[in-house]
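FW: tagging you since you asked about this chain on Friday. Here's the raw sequence from the shared folder, copied in full. Didn't touch anything.
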Amino acid sequence: MIQLQGVEHTYDGRGGRIRALDTTDLTVEPGEFVSIVGASGCGKTTLLRIVAGFVRASGGTVRVEGEPGFVFQRPSLYPWLSVAGNVEFGLKMRKVPRAERKATARRYLDLVGLGDFAEAAPYELSGGMQQRCQIARVLATEPSTVLMDEPFGALDALTREKLQAELSRLAAGRTVLFVTHSVDEAVLLSSRVLVMSPRPGRIVLDLPIDADRDRTRTSPAVLAAVEKVRAAVTST
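HL: got it, structure written out here
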């Protein structure tokens, strides 16, 4: 579970104090996939980083059960390690036995379609493959909660669509908080979509997505949800 109560954030900018995040209450239940959309600068990433513990909230309380895994906008792979070495890294820090962590890394690399690239260097992978490696590295530690900050934003459209489909499969059963600029992506992936207002960010729409049996880009339920989310984004 992720629970925010009265969370807000203000910081010192060049022109004085800036209120980035207005008072926010949010509960994400175990197993939910919740996406956050909104205009640039609305506080989406700030909220996500507060949940991750990277940023200290100015007020309110944050409760996160377990240790979340974080997937950044761009792959943050270690260039001196192989692809498999990158996936094993978190397990090694936890002192998981060598044979176990190698087997775990192999399993997750196979899941994301990188089994044949285990010994490759990160620079030998395409952007999409590097992002899949980052996702495998996070999932290999088996976090119950995954935080994702626009992980597909820098990818071409075809690679992005492929990874969206893979993420739906890989994230099954996990709690996911996902930041994106793409309304279509948010609706396709999520059980709920949150829309945030321009700064100071606050949640202006919390929309459940009831399209599990017909989750395609052209299905009526998806199109209707996309229209509602877009209207909320453009009206704020």
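FW: Residues 79-142 form one domain.
HL: agreed, and DSSP finds seven helices and nine strands in the chain.
FW: great, closing this out.
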